[in-house]
Structures are given as C-alpha cells and as structure tokens.
Amino acid sequence: MMVINLKGGLGNQLFQYAFVRSLSLDLDADIFFDLAHYDSEYAKSLKHDKYTLHHFRIPEDYQKFSHEYDLPAPSVNYNELSFNEITGFPSQRNFNELKLPARFDGYWQSEKYFMHNKEIIRDDLQFNTPLKGKNKEVAQDIADHDSVAMHIRRGDYLDYTKFGTCSRDYYKKSVEFIENQVEDPKFFIFSDDHEWVKENINMDHPHYHVTHNDVLQGHEDMRLMSLCQHFIIANSSFSWWGAWLSKNPDKIVATPRPWFICRHPIIQNIDNGNHYHPIVNDLSKEFNESNRVLFSLNTRNFSHDFSSTNHIDLNFDKGMLNVKADSDSRLYLKEIKRHNEDNDAILKISLQAKKDGVWRLFYKTRHTSDYTNYNKAYSYYYEDDDPDIYVFLSRDLLLSDLRLDPSAKGESEINIKELEIREISDSKNDYGKSGSLNNLVTRFRKILK
Predict the structure, then answer these.
(1) Are the CB atoms for 73 and 99 separated by under 8 Å?
(2) Which residue, of 64, 119, 177, 185, is most buried by count of CB atoms within 10 Å of its CB?
(3) Model pLDDT, residue 259
C-alpha cells in the first residue's frame, strides 16, 4: 500500500499522480490519495489550490481517498531526497529497496519518474468530459492553424521570489525561436495576468488571448493547451503538462533555463527528451538596461565595515569578496534608498563556489516587519559553480533592509564577484530621468546573531 500526499494546483497533482501510479505498477501496490492538504487554511486561501484530478479518466481503483479508509500506519515516509538516495534515481530505479506500506510526500517534478510507464499514464490522463461552448470554438481555431500555446504565469509567483517569473526577454527569444521553426504560427496565449501581457509582450503574429475560463476551469485551459502543436511554457508545472499531454510527435517546446532561480537539485530533471529546447530565462536584459544603481559592492564598502569574527572570514581580493562562513553568518545591506517607491528592482549576485551550499536572501515588506521563511529568495550553488543569479525585488519589498546568509548548509566558501541592486521601471522614459546618487547610502556591513 502507498499513500501519496496530494497538494498544490493541477500541474502539481498530475506530477504526484503520475509518480505514484507508475510506482504502483512497478511494485504491484494499491494507491491512496491523502487530501488533508486541501482542508488546510493555507490551501483554502489560494484560488487554484483545489483537488482537480476528477477531471481525468483515472481508473476508479486508483481514486481511493485515505480519509475514507481505515489505513494501517505506513511503515516509512519518503520525501524526494530520501527516495532518490535509496533508489539511485535518476540513473537507477532500485524500487525494490523501498519498504511498504509507505507514505510519499513531494512534488516529483520529472518525467523520469514515470517515463517507462508513460503510455499508461497518458491513457489515464484523458479528459473525461467533451468540449463544449467557447472551449469547443477555440479548440477548432487551434486545429485550423499551426498553433503555439504560450503560457505566462505571474500572480502568486511574484510573491514566491525563490521561483522567479519568466522575463519579457525569455518570451521574446522564445517567439524568435518558434519563428525559425514554424512557418505560419498562430499564438494562443494563456495567463493569469492578461493585462500585463498585452502591455509587455509584443506580438507581431496572429494571436488570441484565452480569457474565458476562470480558475475553477483551469483544466479546460490545460486541455486547450494540449491541443496546440507547439509550446512556449512558463516555469510552471501547469504549462509543462499542457505540453506533455500534446499528441503531436513533432512538437517544439521552448522551456526556461534555469527553471527556478533557486536551482534546487530536485527540480533539475523537470523536462526530458528532444522536444524540449532550453531558452535562457533571467533578468539580465532588464537589469542591464537600467542605470539606476541602488547598491554596488566595492572595496570602499568593506574597508570600514568588516572585521574578522569567529563566524565569517571576509577577504576582499582581486575585486572579489571571499566569504568563508558557517550557517550562523549574516550579512546586512542597510539603508538602500530608492528613486521611486513605485518601481521594482533587481538584485544581481555573481559567485564562484568552492563547495556545495545554499545562499539565502531575506527581506521585509510593507506588510511584514520581520525576516521570515516566507519572505526569502534562495539559490543553491555547487562545487566549481560560476553562476550569475538575478532576483526580482518587487515594489512591496523594503530595500532599506535586506539580509544575505552566505551559507545555509554548514560551512561554505564562495567568492562574491559582483553584488548590485538596480531599480527598474516599465517606463522607458523613466529610466532617463535625472536623479542624484549622492543620496544613496550604500554601506554593506556584517552583523552576526
């Protein structure tokens, strides 16, 4: 017997189902869905966080809900990291090493978990109601053209800084990529923020905004996506599944790299195969177009504010800050003043890593006065890694008070090659307005707790 904790929106549920359904075939075990998450206040506060697998032709034998059954307590709980370690995933599938009954908790966002049973999964994930009304009309329009589904996810992603949204430049480059592959494309645009799309994504090709389905009909948007021939997806499991469910053997899928700015190891296998074409997704273009520097790391910042301690060793050498730190270390960026409180900002940090670790950026907002795990961005770095990482800082963030933790996994050693914050604006004219930088206080000082 296997219990799977279902959580998140439709895309997450599909990954969780595909993972456990495939594993049940490998181990000849029953499946039970635990839906307790959807009774939580957190889930109820999110419009899209509803159980939605009933829209698919999942066999009744695999729709057993744990709260309806008297289940024996699972002998072991597996999360993604422990499962991968025991089974050797993704290079191996030592599933016989698992102990049952068991509970599985995670997002399982990789086709590699179920690709050996993918035809059965595809058969399970047929929609169980016919197209009708406006959806039927749009489906016919999709069928009549060399259709490209474009998904722009914003909404809650603007609050989850660790994910990062797909940039305007990502969509521009993806459209150009499709143009070179598809002779006469028509774009069908799916988004939770169509007004932003219309203002920020220039589209010279025929296109249609799919706006008639509300959040409770999200499965209908996914079905319409799946009927398209080609795809430009967001870093969203929802649009990933829209592309995966497509039956076009020659589909082209433009996909963002990195998927999330957090670069977590468990999402490194999100896509697979020749259909997927990685397109660089970062905020470098928006960052470089702004000349409004709010904070910039340099030798003068450090010469007066840093001293050696037991927790962190700082050495500014060859233009880089060498940081040897443990997980108790804290760096604070203080008194960074904006030109315009209504503008967003982007932080860029360039690293050289001597070993694996995680750095975290904590921030306060206009609504929260404390550093919390809800108000943070983070990114993994790996031995001999040399990444440039861009973090979107919304206008809600209080740039006057940012905290950088150089290590969240014990002792670390990294070189910070560059650390800079620039204010950005949607208005090109606004970039050119004069403004004195003399009022910016860019002291960067260390405080240990």
Answers:
(1) no
(2) 185
(3) 93
